[in-house]
Amino acid sequence: MYTATGTKEIDKDQFIAEFTPLVKRIAYHMMTRLPASVQVDDLIQAGMIGLMDAINRYEGSYGRQFESYAAQRIRGSILDELREADWLPRSIRKKMRRIEAAVNLLEQRNGCAPNELDLAKELDMSLDEYHETLQNARGAQLIYYEDFQQDDEEPFLDRLFIDSEGDPLNALLDENFRSQLIAAIDNLPPREKQMMGMHYEQEMNLREIGEVLGVSESRVCQLHTQAIARLRSRLRNL
């Protein structure tokens, strides 16, 4: 069927059925970066709203181009929902700051990346307690909104301003920041570097990464949290 302008009408129900797996894949992928309190069903519901919006707004030819467009709308809709729900507890950031401080101290003291036993000892924890802390800090991000705000110390992103009038978001696009981030990722311990590549470049979920590495989903989650702590520690020292 065609509209009055000659544009071919689409079967919305067919498109919803076809691209619902895309919504679920994106939702499960994003769950890796969120605290355990967030329910994946809520992300899927928000993603479906984004898919419907994409179907209603898209004006190009339907194919791979639409899938890319839909993926952007789905992710945007999920992020909007998360922002409105204030999903990131301060307790998570507090735990991450403790781990980051330990990473930084041990790197400065020993001149190399600390292993988990070193970090657990520095934090006065057993290895099991340290792993539990990593698990509870699930949802750790490379950049928090608070990193742009004045607090009890100078936000580390403020040091990346190109000029005093610059938008802090421009720091994320600054070539120096990008090169330092790439270098920090390259210096991660091999297993963490491999895990980050599979997750962010190949868009594999926790279960898939666990199968490749021969570990559990929860272990991949711990490795992810620890890698983020290492990266934030390095970036703070730019």
Automatic annotation (TrEMBL):
Keywords: Cytoplasm, DNA-binding, Sigma factor, Transcription, Transcription regulation
Motif Interaction with polymerase core subunit RpoC: where in chain: 42-45
CDD domains according to UniProt: Sigma70_r4
Localization annotation: Cytoplasm
Annotated segments matching region Sigma-70 factor domain-3: 95-165
Lineage: superkingdom: Bacteria
Gene3D superfamilies in the cross-refs: 1.10.1740.10, 1.20.140.160
InterPro entries linked: RNA_pol_sigma-70_dom, RNA_pol_sigma70, RNA_pol_sigma70_r2, RNA_pol_sigma70_r3, RNA_pol_sigma70_r4, RNA_pol_sigma_FliA_WhiG, RNA_pol_sigma_r2, RNA_pol_sigma_r3/r4-like
CC terms in the record's Gene Ontology section: cytoplasm
Classification via PANTHER family: RNA POLYMERASE SIGMA FACTOR FLIA (PTHR30385:SF7), SIGMA FACTOR F FLAGELLAR (PTHR30385)
Family to which this protein belongs: Belongs to the sigma-70 factor family. FliA subfamily.
Name of protein: RNA polymerase sigma factor FliA
